[in-house]
Amino acid sequence: MPLNVSHIQLRDLAVAAQQLGSSSVITSTCYRLRGRLANIISLYKENAARLFPGKVSRITVPRVQSLEIRAKRRRGVKTVRYIYYKTLPHMGRVKSLDPETFPKQLEMLSEDLAEISSCLGEFRPETTLDDGIKVAIQTIQLFEGDLKYWSNCLYTYTGQFRKQFVRKYLHDLSNEMGEHIDNTIASVSEFKEVGIRTIRYDQKHRTANFPHISTIATLLSIVSAMSTQLSFNQVGNLTADLVKCFWFASLVFSIAAAMNSLLGLTWRQAIYRSPYRRVPWLILFWIKYSPLVFLDMWLVCFSTGLCLFAYSSGQPLRHFSQHLHFLDSVVSAWFVLERWVFIRHSGQKWLSDVPLEKNDRFMSMHSITILRKSSLRVSI
Question: What is the pTM of this model?
Fold first, then answer.
């Protein structure tokens, strides 16, 4: 694959990855990998030119004039200094490298590929990887392993890279490396087309509830503030004080739910955020679950305060509000248990299956079996 194509594919991957959260490392590594590939390919071209001087020409790339122009007056004549690059600007600047740096360049290329592979693997907790993403990771890891092996072998030829037999060995190695580069760039292109879209959809799906929670929590905070105003003048008895305490607590929980949902939305969409595996569990738990927990706490506090307010003021529907509060508590408990069963059994069981399974285990116990058999004998 031509050098231009590999640089364009890596540049497009860096640009496309900016749509994802926690993608800053991928972007920086892609730009660093472009310069690394340019250095290695220039070393191979220089090696081929030295090995076959009549057949392979040395690197000739259009020279680019630097923007830095210094004019000095010497005897009334202006002299202009030019700086020339050996590669085009979009490929990164390639320095004149010593052939002795071959093993080091391969080792650094393997480190960059390992970093990209690790970055792609960090998305595993967020989404179920499809075949395109898995193939990209496996191809990069295979190239990385071969690069480490080649660099270790080339270190044994330190000080001999200008000899003819080492140049022939490097030339033979270039065919294998070229195939690896072609496969890696093809996998990167497939990941850019399919994988980024899959991860982006999953990230948007995970953050879709945060704006709704923030809006609902803002409206509920208004309701709590108006309810607190309604009970502000009631003083002198324990029930009125409890009503004010519960309604003020519901106001605090609703504001906390709105703020934490906005915080979680901003954090999940930031390209500089840490991957899930590198975040402390307490911070990750707080960002993921605190808005819903605060909304549940709002429901408990506000409903309790409403029941106490209806009881203390002698409202005719006070019994109805108590039953409604009980039903809300049952539904909230059902939601919590569903989430617990999903996490405990990795989505392989429903909540209704757990009591049946527990009942079957209980009935299959040895002592229960003996009691059942003895009861059957007595009945006969």
Answer: 0.64
